Amino acid sequence: MDNIKSWTAEDEAIIATNMDATECKRCAVELGYWKDDYISYFVRHADRKAPEINRGYYARVKAMEMFIHQFLERCGTKCQIINLGCGYDTLYWRLKDTTQAVGNFIELDFPAVTAKKCHIIKRNKQLLQKISNEDGEVMIRSGDLHSDGYHLLGCDLRCLGEVRRKLAAGGASAALPALLLAECVLVYLRPDAADALLQHLAGAFPRCALLLYEQCNLGDTFGEVMLRNLSARGCVLAGERLRMRPAALVERLRGLGFDAARAWDMQAVWRALPDDDRARVEALEMLDERELLLQLNTHYAFSVATRGDIFADMDLNA
Known about the structure:
nine-stranded mixed sheet; 14 helices
């Protein structure tokens, strides 16, 4: 499948969720929840979000960082990160500012998203410089961006043949440890397509870890409201799967070819954060609706699935 295709209204609604998430992240960054020197290149302005939204994004970002750090501690920088449904995520640039820049970083998303991201990168020297190789070469071909160690590729994740071709074009290697990232992306795939994608990735990378963040426990009244709100925007999620509890997510991931898996709702993640981190964040904004934050946290899950013994002990409290 080429990058040129007809997108449905549902596809367009899913694409729009990228900007929503980026605006939420920019708001939290501006308020001091975490540091990100690059988010402002991708969204110029963000209206202030509710405190529970800001705290939810903080817990999500911190959970990703914790497990990315664990992965890189175990395998070093001679590995690859594959960001599924990357949107305007700035992880590549943030890692480049540390000692943890990885050997190869591949980002996949709808061509409409990657084309805009590519345009933003090209027009901002601070972004472009960090993806250039020693010769300063950045190649753009058929709407995809390639450099030495960074590849931004337009791809429909529902089409396995296209996923295989794009990963090959990005230099993905079965011989290297792989960290697979999927933040609120698989929920927008039909259940059979999501399962086929995960099963393929588990089989393609014998030594890998998957970090998965998505909704869960949506079988109650609060969850039904979440589903209706998304449906009203044109996003029809895989409802039955999202009604699963974290324990059921573990069984699903093991059934798709991963050796081990763990899952927690975001309230467990929040409680696992260091006391001083939580105290600092709680001092940033007054939170009147503590019950609402609890409800949000219990309706999102963070899952880790692994293949290969070296990653088997990745854990929330590691």
